[in-house]
Structure formats: C-alpha cells, structure tokens
C-alpha cells in the first residue's frame, strides 16, 4: 500500500540547512501494525508527516495505493487525506470552539458529508470505545490531557480510514486506557485490514506491533518483524 523511495528532507533555517531524513526507502503492506522507533530527533515525526501527506519530501517519491503523493497539489492532498488517512497528533489539534462530540463529528461533515444518522452512530460508538461518552458535551479546555488524547484518537478513527498515522498516541494515557486503545486499534486492524503506523517511545505500543522500524539520524538502521 505505501511505498517510499529515496526520501530526503532538508529544512532551511536561515542560512543553515538541516538534513533530517537521508535517502530513506521502505514499503508497508495493507493491514500492517508498524512502529517507527528511535531516539528523540531521529526523524520519526518527519517520516510520519511525509507518509501521511502533511509534509512533502525535499526529494524522493511516495506512492499510496498506486497514487503518487508527491505529484499532488495541496487541494488534492487534502482530499486524499480526508478519504484515506486518519492522523493522531501528539498535540491533539482539537478545535477549541467545538465540543468533544463535534470535534469527532467534524471530519464526517467536512470531508465525507455523511447523513446525520450515520454520523451520530459512528461518533457515539467511538465515544463509548474511548470512554468519553459522559464528556461528549464538554469543550477541549474543560477536559484533561489524557481525555483530549482519547478524543483525538476517536476523531482519527471515525472516518474508517485505510491508514492511521499516530504520533505518540498513548503518551498522555494511563496504562489501563492505553491498553484499551491499543486493543481497539488491533480490533479495527483485524476487522477492516486497516494499516496502523506509529511513531513512539511507548513500550506498550512497541510490544504490541508486528514490525519495528528503527530510525537513527534520519536513516533506517533496522527493520524487523516481531514474534507477534
């Protein structure tokens, strides 16, 4: 499903060129449960952002489902993301003026334009799964960091995406909730063949995935299957 070939990413900071990703190539099949690991600053989030169509490589090619991502303009990328991709951000990215319910419902209105009955069914189901049903009418500034993370996870899953990119999705969660969320993602993977790609330091996720890709200084130094 996902094929990256010779990706390079360089950020220009004034007169300084910072090379973050160096000649990175990888392939991820449908339905894989993958974690990108490595020390802070190794480029994990940058890789996730490029594969997730949020940032473009300086050079190299990305193909998802036979679609060349690097050839798309901003509008085409936004539509492609909305139809195919769910993204769980480390910083939540919730809309402050929308309630918990409305934040989760938002992509179903703006991107998929689903009927109200179907939207309600999906949102309430996920609110129950992430244990946020009783908080559905609250606003982001009225809930904790862990609760915001659960809302962000539900929002990413509500569109039934083919691929979910998750940047430290369990960082703000207690162990019980984290394991519940991981179990939910594994259930979705099994039922819908959804591909999950994590960038994380969290051993709870690392121990649950089927494949570990280790990144150091913007390069893949190890790519191994686990014993799952």
Task: Describe this structure as you would to a colleague.
The protein has one domain: Rossmann fold. The protein is built from 7 helices and 10 strands. The chain is an alpha/beta fold. Strands 6-7-8-3-9-10 form a 6-stranded mixed beta sheet, sandwiched between helices. A 4-stranded antiparallel beta sheet has the order 2-1-4-5, with helices on one face. It is globular, with a radius of gyration of 17 Å.
Radius of gyration: 17 Å
Seen as an oligomer or otherwise, the chain set is: single chain
Within the CATH hierarchy, at the fold level, what is the topology? Rossmann fold
Structural class based on helices, strands and sheet pairing: alpha/beta
Total DSSP helices? 7
What best-fitting shape do the alpha-carbon axes yield? globular
How would a crystallographer describe the biggest sheet?
Answer: 6 strands, mixed
Helix fraction, binned, reads 25-40%
Q: Which CATH class?
A: Alpha Beta
Which percent range describes the beta-strand content? 25-35%
Q: What's the CATH superfamily, by name?
A: P-loop containing nucleotide triphosphate hydrolases
- How many β strands by DSSP? 10
Give the rounded overall mean pLDDT. 91
Instruction: Record the strand order, biggest sheet.
Output: 6-7-8-3-9-10
CATH 2nd-level architecture: 3-Layer(aba) Sandwich
Low-confidence stretches: none
The structural domain count equals 1
Distance between the ends? 21 Å
Order of helices and strands: EEEHEEHEHHHEHEHEE
């Amino acid at each position: 499903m996902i094929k990256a070939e010779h990706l390079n990413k360089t950020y220009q900071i004034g007169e300084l060129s910072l090379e973050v990703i160096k000649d990175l190539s990888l392939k991820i099949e449908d339905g894989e449960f993958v974690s990108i690991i490595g020390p802070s600053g190794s480029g994990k989030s940058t890789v996730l952002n490029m594969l997730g169509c949020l940032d473009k490589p300086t050079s190299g090619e990305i193909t998802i489902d036979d679609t060349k991502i690097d050839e798309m303009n901003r509008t085409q990328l936004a539509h492609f993301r909305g139809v195919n991709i769910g993204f769980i951000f480390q910083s939540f990215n919730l809309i402050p003026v929308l309630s918990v319910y409305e934040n989760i419902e938002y992509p179903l209105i703006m991107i998929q334009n689903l009927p109200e009955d179907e939207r309600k069914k999906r949102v309430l189901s996920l609110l129950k799964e992430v244990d946020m049903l009783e908080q559905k009418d609250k606003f982001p500034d009225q809930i904790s960091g862990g609760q915001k993370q659960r809302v962000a996870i539900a929002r990413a899953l509500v569109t039934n995406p083919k691929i979910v990119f998750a940047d430290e999705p369990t960082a703000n969660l207690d162990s019980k909730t984290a394991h519940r969320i991981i179990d939910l993602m594994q259930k979705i993977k099994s039922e819908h063949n959804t591909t999950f790609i994590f960038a994380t330091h969290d051993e709870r996720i690392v121990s649950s995935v089927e494949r570990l890709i280790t990144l150091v200084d913007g390069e893949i130094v190890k790519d191994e299957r686990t014993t799952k």
